[in-house]
């Protein structure tokens, strides 16, 4: 029985594909947030802040918080896990005040 001590490596195309999709996800996340910011024109009315803050909170901060742990395209790839965990929770906690600031403008303009 022959025992091969070298682990089988996967084709490089799989690694490149994972990295490309993660970079594409970062790009789409930023692009969508900018698109909604341009489309909603925050500051033109009190309600115009609602779509901007919701997109910033859920499309940008949440997605980037999740992607911090991606081994193939994380912006904090070389940092230790503890630092990634702290950055993750900071981004998650940023969602709460940003998302909460939306409720006051949306209720005052629609009542």
From TrEMBL:
Stored Pfam families: Cytochrom_B561 (PF03188)
Which residue numbers delimit the Cytochrome b561 domain?
A: 49-97
Which keywords describe this protein according to UniProt? Electron transport, Heme, Iron, Membrane, Metal-binding, Transmembrane, Transmembrane helix, Transport
Q: What is this protein called?
A: ascorbate ferrireductase (transmembrane)
Please list the cofactors this protein needs.
heme b
Q: Which Gene3D superfamilies match?
A: 1.20.120.1770
Supply one GO CC term from the record. endoplasmic reticulum
> Which compartments does it reside in?
Membrane
What is the organism of origin for this protein?
A: Dissostichus eleginoides (Patagonian toothfish)
Give the main localization category. membrane
EC identifiers of the protein: 7.2.1.3
The record describes its membrane topology as: Multi-pass membrane protein
A GO MF annotation of the entry reads:
metal ion binding
Q: Which residues cross the membrane?
A: 21-40, 52-69
